[in-house]
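hey
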């Protein structure tokens, strides 16, 4: 038996990664296994839910075994099994939820249901301790939210997207440029080579609002591409990528900065798949360098979906003994 306070085995299957991890005390990663299906969904230009579920079923036990083995523990050492309860694709979530319940039942361990976005925020705790009050910008394929936290496990959404999520806009613009799925990393790469020449709109919404809107920008880019194609004019893909990305990042950075100032936070956490973006990371660093707000952005492997983040978020619930019953169900629209 290793020296420990608590060990959590965590499972994440909300979208297209089958992931399992063992996390100690919510802060230390003992193993983090991610089996991605990205290459499979690439053929279809996006995630096909039925295909995702099928692959989760195929991978789940393999990934679980690997996570336990790599952590050098046995199921006896594990104190609780945590799983992403939602939001996400229902069929995909169900594979993880059922695996977690079966394991917990078989080994007599409690189950903890975790909100996927809480996971993204807590990915940071595997690197750096939280300092409250804190603000988190969560930018992923399904979410764009500003979340204020005064203590562990307490989440207040102070702003969110009114339409498309930032990652969704990246993926749709990438598709319009005939780039492979997922589009975020492709646009990120191309944007390093281009200039902001297309002057796409920046949507700040009404004064004082921390909400976001990216569908107008997405439509502006798509309309521009149609026009250029109709007129037979050349499309400078790098410049389109840079122009689009500048519009997204200007708004993300400005609103986050204003909210951090208004709420007087000590720490700013950037989380979710889009936080892997090179320019977003650099721009956040520049903007917060002059402030006394500490900036925390996870390393790339913790930005996109993984189970370690679910284990980290679950640790807080474990200490509150906030356990789920064996009736726990996948909740695709789970609120925070
Ligand atoms: O958090 P995540 O892995 O899954 C969800 O919970 O949605 O985020 C995936 C999203 C996708 O939209 C993907 O295009 C975007 O994150 N993404 C990026 C980058 N890497 C991933 N967006 C911009 N730049 C990147 N480098
Ligand atoms: Zn995610």
């Amino acid at each position: 038996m290793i020296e420990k306070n608590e060990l959590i085995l965590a499972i994440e299957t909300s979208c297209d990664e089958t992931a399992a991890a063992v996390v100690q005390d919510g802060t230390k990663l003992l193993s983090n296994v991610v089996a991605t299906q990205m290459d499979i969904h690439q053929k279809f230009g996006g995630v096909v839910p039925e295909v995702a579920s099928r692959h989760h079923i195929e991978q789940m036990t393999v990934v679980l075994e690997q996570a336990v083995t790599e952590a050098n523990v046995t199921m006896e050492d594990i104190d609780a099994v945590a799983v992403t309860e939602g939001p996400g694709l229902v069929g995909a979530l169900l594979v993880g939820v059922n695996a977690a319940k079966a394991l917990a039942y078989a080994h007599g361990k409690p189950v903890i249901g975790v909100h996927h976005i809480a996971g993204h925020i807590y990915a940071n705790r595997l690197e750096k301790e939280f300092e409250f009050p804190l603000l988190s910008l969560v930018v992923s394929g399904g979410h764009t939210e500003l979340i204020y936290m005064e203590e562990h496990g307490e989440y207040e959404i102070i702003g969110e997207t009114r339409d498309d999520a930032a990652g969704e806009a990246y993926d749709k613009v990438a598709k319009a440029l005939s780039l492979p799925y997922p589009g975020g990393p492709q646009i990120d790469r191309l944007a390093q080579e281009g200039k902001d020449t297309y002057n796409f709109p920046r949507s700040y919404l009404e004064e004082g609002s921390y909400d976001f809107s990216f569908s107008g920008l997405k439509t502006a880019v798509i309309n521009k591409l149609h026009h250029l194609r109709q007129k037979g004019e050349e499309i400078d893909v790098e410049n389109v990528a840079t122009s689009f990305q500048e519009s997204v990042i200007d708004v993300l950075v400005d609103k986050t900065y204003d909210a951090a100032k208004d709420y007087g936070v000590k720490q700013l956490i950037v989380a979710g798949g889009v936080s892997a973006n090179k320019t977003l990371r650099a721009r956040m660093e520049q903007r917060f360098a002059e402030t006394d707000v500490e900036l925390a952005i996870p390393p790339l492997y913790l930005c996109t979906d993984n189970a370690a983040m679910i284990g980290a978020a679950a640790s807080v619930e474990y200490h509150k003994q906030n356990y789920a019953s064996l009736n726990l169900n996948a909740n695709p629209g789970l609120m925070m």
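The two ends are 36 Å apart (CA to CA). The domain at 7-121+303-319 is CATH 3.30.420.40 (Nucleotidyltransferase; domain 5).
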